UniProtKB/TrEMBL annotation:
Family matches, as InterPro entries: PPR_rpt, TPR-like_helical_dom_sf
GO CC annotation: mitochondrial matrix
Matching PANTHER family: 2-OXOGLUTARATE AND IRON-DEPENDENT OXYGENASE DOMAIN-CONTAINING PROTEIN 2, PENTATRICOPEPTIDE REPEAT-CONTAINING PROTEIN 1, MITOCHONDRIAL
Domain of life, per lineage: Eukaryota
GO molecular function: tRNA binding
Region spans: Disordered: 72-91, 622-649
Protein name (Swiss-Prot/TrEMBL): Pentatricopeptide repeat-containing protein 1, mitochondrial
Amino acid sequence: MLRGVVLILARAGNAVKVRNTQTCLCNATYFTQIPSRKFADAPSPASEEDEVRFGDYPRTFSSRMSFRKSSAELQDTEVEQDEPDPNFRPRTKLRRRNTPYWYLLQCKKLLKKDKLAEALSLFEVEMLREERLQPEEYNYTVLIGGCGRAGYIKKAFKLYNDMKKRGLEPSAAAYTALFNACAESPWKQSALEQALKLRQELRRKNIPLNAITHHALLKTLARAGDLRACFQVLREMLQSGQAITQETFQYLLMCCVEDKEQGFRLVLQVWHQMLSAGIKPDGQNYNIVLRAARDCGIGDPALASKLLLRGQEESQLTAQGKGQRSRLREGTCDPEPLDVDAFERLVLTDTASDLAQSTLRSDSTQTQLIPVSSSSRLSPALKLAPSVPNLLDPSTCHSDVVALATASTASDRLALIGDLDGFLNKMSGDGLKPSIKTLTLLADVTQPGSQSVRSLMDAANRSGVRLDVGFFNTLIRRAAKSGDVDGAKALKTLMLERKLHPNPQTFCSLALACRSPKDGLQLLTDMQACGVGVNAHVFSALIGQAMRRLDYVWLHELLQQMHQLQVSPNDVIIKQLEFATQYPPTYDQYKTKNTYLEKINGFRGFYKQWLEFMPAQETPHPWEKYHHPETELRQDGVESGRGERERLS
């Protein structure tokens, strides 16, 4: 049946082309004729017998046609579909892919700004997840180093395990960063276990450690206070032919400081061995000695006398003769510069046996102990020689000085190492000048008084050191603890004369000098006048002063001030208040009567009500400055801390 299809054919040589296609409307339906293909070569013209009749298919070319049916309804549907889709996103041009080295540079920039969380997000999210780049060894190493400086031990070892799963060989810098992460971790016991596990893995794989990695391991063991393990690492360094330097003895001194009972005696023994090995101390070594004088005791005086007050010949373990000692170079040593076994036996000596031997020696020489006099400032040693010995200099420790008295305070221990002037002269003899840290430590161990303050300021002027707020805060705290209220206020005035602005630590030190509620209120008023915010540490110091005087009226007033100033109590304040609400163990309220202690009952009622409407302060996490809400750093750190606390409990 003919449906009105008209074909117009144009012949040009041997080519037949379709010039036009006419569409006709029939019963509101369109039929579109579309040729399926074109032919460049066509057969010769047909004869008369083969004349194409109207409506017949021509034989000279293919007549296959395809027709597409359309209607008004379908056209309306197509128009509706052509409307823009709001969820449609045009395909943008792909950006240039970055290289792993580019990500290394970006992570270094972020780590220099202490943005550890952003660096981890850049590596894990953008590089690995979005761009799907294959990381290199240096990408992991730089991030492990950042985690190591922050003490983020869990993330550091997670990156280390991922690196091994990808088939990347860790470098010596990666192992150094892992040991450094263990050293900087806030939880020493779990960090020590992780470091020892890594050390066993390296031994199993026969991976040698260089001097830098050995020092990182030594730092981890020193922070944990494992002195025997430190000597074992020292022995491994000597066996591998690595040099023993100032840094090596620095970590040994740090390990001795962890022993609070006899750390000062251990520090002096390691110091003597360092000098006998021909190694010249630096400023950091002197600072560690001051820390030991401040925080550590000397142990048993008889044992300390036997080990410290000996001749110079007895203290040398490895050098034999003056010719061999002169060949020891400064800062470096021969392959076996010292006898580690003898050194370990000397430091880790048996207290019981040596104490008996030292007692027999002291009885045979018929000597007696001379106590330390704070007024005369004599050294707490038996003065049988013309000069008082300085234990930092073994040449002054003569054999006729054989006994020490008990050095119970920091100023007594400073007198053993020459006092303020002798210590500074010893530093000057080694070509060193005190830094602001050295002077601050000296301010914390000297005898409180105007003479000590004047001597420290003269030493600062000679060395060209500019005093800061921390130095004056230490002096104010020392004066306040000794009960010198006028001296503490005079130091604050001196600090203001030097145009130094007080900080919260300044007022926290001044709070130790408050003796009455009037002084406490005046202190809070002065803080607000200076524009310094009142914190929980200041209130903790004031609460401690009120508890020493059993002044529950003052405590009641301090709690009200905390509520008015919206200062949340921390865990230290809660422990103080819980202790204040308890009766003394020897007090019986039914047998004796005490007007001060009877006020505990009233304070207990107010304290319970105060706890209901006062929000407690959350203890800050050690990695708080590295946290970012968009990363998993906070969650992992808290889980790690919770696991460590559960393990310790």
